[in-house]
Amino acid sequence: QVQLVESGGGLVQTGGSLRLSCATSGSIFMINSMGWYRQAPGKQRELVATITSGGSTNYADSVKGRFTISRDNAKNTVYLQMNSLKPEDTAVYYCNSVLQRTPTDYNGVYWGQGTQVTVSL
Predict the structure, then answer these.
(1) What is the DSSP secondary structure assignment for residue 97, as one 8-state letter?
(2) Band of residue 92 on the pLDDT scale cut at 50, 70, 90
(3) Which segments of 1-121 are extended strands (E)?
(4) pLDDT score at 74
């Protein structure tokens, strides 16, 4: 079994900051990429940021310069530092791990349960 556990969501005022964390645990051989996605009410889930095992990052244009993704490979944990938050950042944030459970396994995609981020005016 593979489990992703998120933490760090909450309510913050416009311009504030939050840091999300997501730890992946279970039967894992290698985690390739990790990422954060979000889904606002009535909208589709969208990519926020991803990071590879080598540290290469990719961000949605809407969060560039404000959000920073990082990972601790020893802890199988990915972080999302969110600064200068805006009301339009309000959403449920989901973490994701693309990983192999064995050396011969294909990559599988696993998701966390989601954490609510609400940015008030």
Answers:
(1) E
(2) very high
(3) 2-7, 10-13, 18-26, 30-39, 46-52, 57-59, 67-72, 77-82, 91-100, 108-111, 115-120
(4) 93
